[in-house]
Structure formats: structure tokens, C-alpha cells
Design a protein that fits this description.
globular; acyltransferase activity, acyl groups converted into alkyl on transfer; Citrate synthase; Citrate_synthase_sf; transmembrane; Citrate Synthase, domain 1; mainly alpha
Length: 503
Amino acid sequence: MVSQKETSRADEVTITIPVEPGDAEAGRAAAVSAAAVGRALQTALQRKASAAPRLAPREVWLYDPGYTSTACCRSAITFIDGENGILEYRGFPIEALATTCGFYTVAYMLLEGTFPADAKVRAQFAKSIQPGLDLDPVVANVVESFPQEAHPMTVFMAATAALSASRPAWNPALVRGDGGSLRLVYRTRAERQRIAQECISSLTSIAAAVFRHMRGCPVRFPKSTQHLREHPLDAFAPDGFARAFLHAADPEGTLWPEQRHASAVFAETLDVIFVLHADHELNCSTAAMRHLTSAGSDVLTCLAAAIGALYGPLHGGANEAVLNMLEEIGSPEAVEAFVASVKRQERKLMGFGHRVYRSYDPRAKILRTLAQQVLREASTEGRTANGPTTANGASDPLLIIAQTLEKRALEDPYFTERKLYPNVDFYSGVLYRAMGFPSVFFTVLFAIARTVGWLAHWMEMLERDATDAERKIVRPRQIYIGKRRQRIPLEAVEKRPDRRSRL
């Protein structure tokens, strides 16, 4: 128990509330029940207002814009220590996972809570989530209905929602007697596993189809690529999942021909990026996934909503915004003037700072090293995918601008005192560009990886559906600041005698 005493003003009250102790060793924060705080405050205020009971509040709510200090669930998936730059999936440091495990293995571990037991399990799982080459006809029609220049996230989100129409058995709204518990639709853990795996495969296939549509290529695979349907899968390859996606996105091999050494480097790098992006605790899009799940929405509708949240330039769209910023700066010589304009608050420094990190984002450290390797590989083969190399063929000009900007910002107390360090978005855009992806497609790549995290949280919620009494439909409260008991002005009153007689 802890007592919080307020004695500086006569109108303040003292309350006693239970606190669940934290554990620094386990990285667990202390927790206080918001409902308990509200009830204690309400009781104290009612007692204090005994002389004027009409002034006492009927309810007390905690005001927390952006939920910066509010935990809405208990989760065992991802741990973040923003002060010290620590990120762990299921207790495993992100640095170790990125250097020792491919995306197939990390995806399995996030969804199942453990690593594959043996080679057979890993191979079966890899096969179940790899991108397929054939789209559902409904989804293919939706992708083709969009103009080629449409933003791919819009197409991706719409196609994911459309896939829901082809999976009516997955929709609690269409199942008689479900009542919102989701248990009749997603009955067993095995069923939830199968659905999650199919969602990963389907959404990655949709992303590949969107990429082909952007380039004016057929959404449906032509007969000339029939041989790719039998493409062998190596579940042990360090770049297995990424390589499968690149095959699906570029079946003719015009962008990433297998014989080029750079293509292997790109695939391995993309697989690492997928590992880094797989989950990140209760971010905006994952919160949206949980939010809709709490309402009983079907899994594909939940995923479409999460994609919509990720689309925002302050969330998943930030890496595209970083690249746009670097292109706008134009040259290393222009960095100083840009930094000055940021300090005058005339422009925004994209890719720096993070909602939870108050030190260097651990994912950004890994990407910084990868960016140098990938751009060196691309320039060795005579190009960087979407832009020229420098005079000596050593690097992409945007990487030089990025490095100059990072060095300048990290030397300036204005940024360091505000804990503004590079985050994962700062270098991922440069990497994607070097691989040949247009900037508008960057967030779709982010979504491919994050689909695993979204589904891990979805499975965790459903696992507790029958036992967790705390799981409720998400319904935040508001602090009402408008007027009350107003009268409709005479000039706004409409003559509706029939309605008045009925009501």
C-alpha cells in the first residue's frame, strides 16, 4: 500500500491505493489499477463535499492524452527499455536475433513463444507462411481496380479488407451465437495458428502483387513464370523469407536476378530488416489491432485497421518521410541550414526521436551498419537502385547526407538534451532505396514484417479470452469540455408535425 498525501492546498485530498510492485531485474514496471485510483478519489471527493453533495463527482477518470502512462493489457511478447535502448522479443535481445536467426525462426518464436523444436517443424512453418503466387480472385480484382499510381498502402489496406469477404468462416459477425467472445470462430490454438500462418502468407502475397501492379506488371502470374511455382524453399537459408518475397514481387527477375551477388546481399539485408520490424510492443498499429480484436472483429478486418494506422507518417510512414527529407536537403552542404531551420521549429527532423526511446534506437544501430554494406555492394555492381553513385562510385548521395545529418545532430546539445537520437526509420529508407524499392512502397515492407507482431498480439488476446476477466472491449473515456443544457434557437427549429406526433 502507498499513501499519497497532498497538503499544499486546502481543497486537496489524501487517498490510499494498492500498488503492484515492479521488478527492475525482470524489467517490469510498477502498476496501479486506474479503476482503483478512480474509485478512491471519487470516495474521497464525495466525503469532502458532504456539505454540498451536488458538487461531488459521480465518477473520476485519469486524464492521459496519448496513453503515455496507461497500460491496457498484460503481454509476454515484447519488452522495451527506452531509457537504455533495449528491445527484446520474448526476452531475447534484438541484436542477438538479428545476427543469428532468420525471419522464419523469429516469426515462429513470436507467434508460438518458443523456437522451432527441430528442422521438420521449422520447414513446415516456413512453407506455411511463405508468399504464395496465386491471389484470391476477389483480392486480385481489387488490386487491379486501383490506378497504377495509387499509393500502395491504400491498395494494400483495401485488398486486405477485401480478403475478409472471401473468409466468411473467420468472421464472428457472421457466426450465429458467437456473442463476441470469438471462441466459436477461433476455437482452438491449432486453428488460431493455422489462421495466423495463412494471414502472413496472404498479406505478403498481396504486398508482392501490389508491387507488381505499381510497375505495370500482371497482378496474376503469367504462364511464363509457371516454373517459379515450384521454386525450392530452403527453410534454413538466412534470407529465406525475404528471398521468397523478392521472387513473388519480381517473378521475371528484372530487378533482382539470382545470378547477381548483390541480390543475395539485398535478400539477406531485407530479412534482417523484417526481423527488426516484426514487433515493437504496443505501438499505434498494434494498439489498433488489439482495439478491433476487443470488439470481436474478424482477424482480416483487424489487420486492415492496423495497416491503416501504420500508414501514418508519424508511425510506419516515417521511413518514407525520412527519404523525402533527405532528398529535400539535397546535399551535405545544405545540412547546416536545414538543422538551423529545425532548431527554429520551421521544419521537422524526421527519423530522430521516438515515443519510447530516450537513447539510440538499438534497431537503428544495426541498420546503420547494413546501410553501408548494402550501398557498397550496389555501387560495386555499377549502380544504386534508384539513384547515382558518388564520383568515386563509393556510396549513394543520400547516405552521405544521412551520415552528415546524423553527425551534426548528435554533436548539437539542442538534440542530445532532448534525447533526439536516430530511430529505425532513419536508415531503413536509404536501405530500401538501395534495393530498388520506390519510397511509396517502404511502409508496405514495414507492414509485411509487422503482420507477425500484430498476429502474435491477436493470438495472445484470444488465448486469454476464456480466462482473463480484465479483457474488455476498448472504450477510453473523455473529459467533456463543451457546454451543457443548451436550448435550440428558435430560427433552427424545423416544422415537423408528423415527427412530433410519433415521438
